[in-house]
């Protein structure tokens, strides 16, 4: 369902900071100097239908960059990417929320942004609010919501989108334990439906409990790929060095 072969992605980072107007004018006539940072370095793997893949690694290891390439938000410099099936990226949940609108209004707005028709949102509205457990706040403006409430509503809308492959980047980091458990119950249902899930997370316990496979990334390279327990053990040894 997903095939990644020799994928590489490099970013150019400016070496010099320019603070004043005068410095900016001077620098206009100089060639800017950049440092090249390789976010992904010759990455290759395949993901089959129904797999729940956890991607772990330290900050800056290339995890989020990889998800953005899979979501086709970023274009790789080199390599081959083949995806069969509809992809739903859960990378920045609630990115379309308007803080001056109510939860009800944002459900419709965000649902349409994610590709649902108004009729589909109408049909699924009660399920969305029930799953988010925000019935008492449905007509409250979003600017009065906590970060956890934002995530609950955004996730509840996002799971209504029909997709074969779900890409998630730390989407549950803000939610409480009860809501996280509900989310993983949804993921288990997706596994039974043979949907593919790729989860970037720092929660090693979730990787060991729910993932069928894990990949450990460091400096843009795959260090280990395989059984979640063994991959987590390898990463733990690495992190303790």
Automatic annotation (TrEMBL):
Keywords for the protein's UniProt record, in alphabetical order: ATP-binding, Nucleotide-binding, Transport
Family in the record: Belongs to the ABC transporter superfamily.
PROSITE patterns attached to this UniProt entry: ABC_TRANSPORTER_2
Domain ABC transporter: 2-239
SUPFAM superfamilies for the chain: P-loop containing nucleoside triphosphate hydrolases
MF-aspect GO terms: ABC-type transporter activity; ATP binding; ATP hydrolysis activity
Name this polypeptide is given: ATP-binding protein
Listed InterPro entries: AAA+_ATPase, ABC_transporter-like_ATP-bd, ABC_transpr_TagH-like, Bact_Polysacc_Export_ATP-bd, P-loop_NTPase
Domain of life per record: Bacteria
GO CC annotation, single: membrane
Pfam families linked: ABC_tran
Keyword presence, tRNA processing: no
């Amino acid at each position: 369902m997903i095939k990644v072969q020799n994928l590489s992605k490099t970013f150019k980072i400016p070496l010099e900071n320019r603070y004043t107007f005068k410095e900016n004018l001077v620098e206009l006539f100089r060639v800017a100097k950049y440092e090249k940072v390789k976010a992904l370095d010759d990455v290759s793997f395949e993901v089959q239908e129904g797999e729940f893949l956890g991607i772990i690694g330290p900050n800056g290891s290339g995890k989020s960059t990889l998800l953005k390439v899979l979501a086709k938000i970023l274009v790789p410099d080199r390599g081959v990417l083949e995806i069969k099936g509809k992809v739903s990226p859960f990378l920045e949940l609630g990115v379309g929320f308007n803080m001056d609108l109510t939860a009800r209004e944002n459900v419709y707005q965000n649902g349409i942004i994610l590709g649902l028709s108004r009729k589909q949102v109408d049909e699924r509205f009660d399920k969305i609010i029930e799953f988010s457990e925000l019935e008492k706040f449905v007509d409250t403006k979003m600017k009065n919501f906590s970060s956890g409430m934002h995530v609950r509503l955004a996730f509840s809308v996002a799971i209504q989108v029909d997709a074969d492959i779900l890409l998630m980047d730390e989407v549950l980091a803000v939610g409480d334990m009860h809501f996280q458990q509900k989310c993983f119950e949804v993921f288990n249902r997706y596994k039974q439906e043979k949907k593919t899930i790729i989860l970037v997370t720092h929660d090693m316990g979730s990787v060991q409990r729910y993932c069928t496979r894990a990949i450990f990334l460091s400096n843009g390279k795959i260090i280990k790929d395989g059984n979640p327990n063994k991959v987590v053990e390898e990463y733990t040894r690495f992190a303790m060095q």
